[in-house]
Fold this protein.
Amino acid sequence: MTRILLLTDNLMTRVQLESRWRKAGADVRDHEDEKADYDLLVIDLVGPDAAGRVKRLKARHPGSRLIAFGPHVDGAAFKAAKAAGADECVARGSVIDRVLARIKTD
């Protein structure tokens, strides 16, 4: 079972993503447990210090793949997230399928 930490402050986004990924068999959490092992860290880049949040998450969970997403293709936010350690940066509309593909390969 793929273990996912999903961090977003947008309730509608959270509900939509969680429901799709859970139907595919993933265990989706919305609160970080620093001692937990996650296969995927999925973080919304909307909000204060998103790049700093990416950096802290990768430092605490170095073996986890981190996918950052935003409401649209935001070059500056994506560039900052990649520099902070994100493995991938995708538009919000693509994150569901990007993660579903990873769930199916695990």
Observations:
- The two ends are 7 Å apart (CA to CA).
- Residues 2 and 43 are 16 Å apart (CA to CA).
